[in-house]
Design brief:
95 residues; alpha+beta; Arc Repressor Mutant, subunit A; two-stranded antiparallel ribbon; globular
Amino acid sequence: MSGRGASSIRSRAFLRSVKNVRRGVLTRSRIIDIISVKACTLDQLSKELGLSESSIRRHLKNMLAEGVVEKVRYKGKVLWKLGESGQLDLEEASG
């Protein structure tokens, strides 16, 4: 597990539907960092982040509801990738 996402908070990690506590925002930011490089399965995200699948699933469900991520089926697997709104970054959103 890399410390890469530990200090960088992504604007899209802040959700309207949940209380945005620091730990949750950091976890969602790390998820965004990983899936911005390539689509991943729940298992891959869990291993990369060192968190339980149920924890990752909860974050992905909330992010999916707000369009930050998308769920794609490929060869019998469910892959998670950034959604259209997940690709916006703070500069684009405020510009």
